[in-house]
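Lay summary. Proteins are chains of building blocks that fold into shapes, and those shapes determine what they do. In this project we predict the shape from the chain. Here is one chain we studied, written as its sequence of building blocks.
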Amino acid sequence: MERVTCHLCELRPPRRPCPALHRDICAQCCAEQREQTIDCPLECEFLRDARRHEKLPEIDPKSLPNPEIELTDAFLQAQQPLAIVTGRLLLVAALETPGAVDFDMRDALDALVRTHKTADSGLIYESRPANGLAAAVVDRFQNEMRQFREHMAEKSGAHTVRDKDLLGVLVFWQRMEWQRNNGKRKGRAFVESLFSLLPPPPEQSPTT
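And here is the predicted shape, written in a compact code that computers can read:
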């Protein structure tokens, strides 16, 4: 009988069904190629198990994005509702941009922060990343945020989302990406962390 081998290495016996490749691969290839050469879907059971034991790479505190912007506990507490809305819009933008990974989100957040830095100073200059996927994320986020700000203005009769507050919240998410990026080329650990911001599913009424 012909010996069945892993779809990738063609050496070891396959032990795991890969939902990304739609083929069986061995555990070693799964571990080595996960989020490196394989676009792992977030619902993959092996990715989820690996995420629970994942050790993030050490990061240099000197590389903290925009260190000149101070985010105090008082600011973060006061702007928590805006931070949640912004995180949800970032998640939607990521999911609606096929192929977007954490490094694309890094480029997108960098562009968004640059744009809102100029807005806070009274200038109007939109920074666009050269990365096409990041640019798509920026476009989707900006459109959704514009609609949110218009909705808030109609609801309250005034523009309640200040550019300065939005800038601070974007820097907060930029630093969260900086902390949670696992360094893998196709990694989406940061994107996955944003799912915790989604509202809980509505409770189903008991059937009678």
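What the prediction tells us: The mean pLDDT is 91.
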